[in-house]
Amino acid sequence: MKFQKEEPPGEEGMPVQLRPYSIRARFTLVTAVLSLIVFTLIGIGLDFAIRIRIQDGIFAESQRLATSWIDWQPYAAPQPVTTTRIDLLQFTDSHGRVLAASRAAGHVPISTLHPPPDDRIRHGISCTPERCVAFTVVRLPLLQTTMLWSGEPHFVYAGMVQPPILSGHRLEWLTGLGIALMSALSAWVAWWVVGRTLRPVAEIRARTAEITVSDLSLRLPQPPGRDEIAQLARTTNRTLARLEEAVNQQRQFASVVSHELRTPVSALYTRLEEAVLYPDEVDLRETVAAALSTTERMHAIINDILVLARIRTVIPAPPEPIDLGALVAEESAGQVNGAPVRTRTAAGLIILGNRIQLIGVLNNLLVNACRHAQTTVDVSMARAGGYAVVNVVDDGAGIAPEDRERVFEPFVRLADGRRLDPGGSGLGLAICRGIVSAHHGTLSIEDSPRGARFVLRLPLMETNRSTAHV
């Protein structure tokens, strides 16, 4: 059992307190203390029960023998004989004189205890320095004493020397030894059971020490069963898997950001270097204008990166009820560039969300659709399974099935997108999906007869409330 020293601050010279610092040691100590208390109480009760049981047996047998001896007229027997363990028999008068006795009893009175007139039988224990005798004394009936001894009381004593287990402290010593052994056995069982239970914890701790940020592929050993330790291991492994995925995404994101920023930075560096090296050959106004355009592109990319980072890390503002149909109609009416937008809204589709963020999502989807459409953009709404569904469909070239998930990745831009929007950062759809995910919805691209069909699903307010009450 391991212990650690515990010294009060600023109390030099005070006695050192020791306390076990391992769970196994603490449980074993608590089990030992509780077992000692419980077994001590049981031992005390058992000690009393054994004493009472043995004494009651002696008293019952001695009473039976004494009353039987009275029936045999013991006053006429010069030396009574017994064949049971009750070997001490005496017949005495009221002055304590022994009138008849068994060989083992002798002529020294067993006791001077006399039953009261209203109770013919008494039990007792008489002790001398040599021995203790458990006995029963019986008063002879009044009719016999009146006829034979003129009413003088006479008594019959029957008893035996107390067994060694009662006369000394042997029973207490045996009980104490049993208490100590049972408490030690309980402590050992607790030590073994807790050690076996915590064995997976030691393996989990050793494996956890091997996991580093540079290598998150290791997983904790999962013990069999469904106890708390097994559930902890499974939950931790799922957390490690999510953490590994997040770290990989961050690494990939950082790599993509570095690549996207390297191009405009390199171009800016090259132009400025040419202006410094060849001041007479370079048009400074043109160089400054180009540098300003590159800086604006870098500024737009950085702003989009910050927006995407805030969506992933910053706690969103408290949601508010929003009439999604009115919001879609308002944003559709505000699109004046590109193909016209035809809108079919639905009433009563109330959601909980951040109005500013959802406006950004709708605006981005509508701008993309208007940019890629040839003649028109159709926006429709419906209710489906507790969700408000918004379909934004253009009649452009569409998106190939293998690219429908790629376009939501940061900085991914298809050839058609680069051609129609050369200054774009490629973060718009990634930001939209991040916002929609934060609202517990989905944003995807689904099949359409012609063009691209973006489908936005957001949980209705009654769905959010019912989920919150589960």
TrEMBL record:
InterPro entries, A to Z: HAMP_dom (IPR003660), HATPase_C_sf (IPR036890), HATPase_dom (IPR003594), His_kinase_dom (IPR005467), HisK_dim/P_dom (IPR003661), HisK_dim/P_sf (IPR036097), Sig_transdc_His_kin-like_C (IPR004358), TCS_sensor_his_kinase (IPR050428)
Keywords: Kinase, Membrane, Phosphoprotein, Transferase, Transmembrane, Transmembrane helix, Two-component regulatory system
Class of enzymatic activity (EC top level): transferase
Record-level Gene Ontology MF annotations: phosphorelay sensor kinase activity
Cellular component aspect of the GO annotation: plasma membrane
Annotated compartments: Cell membrane
EC number of the protein: 2.7.13.3
Gene3D superfamilies on file: 1.10.287.130, 6.10.340.10, Histidine kinase-like ATPase, C-terminal domain
Record PROSITE patterns: HAMP (PS50885), HIS_KIN (PS50109)
Reactions catalysed, as given in the entry: ATP + protein L-histidine = ADP + protein N-phospho-L-histidine
Domain Histidine kinase, first and last residues per copy: 256-462
Protein name in the entry: histidine kinase
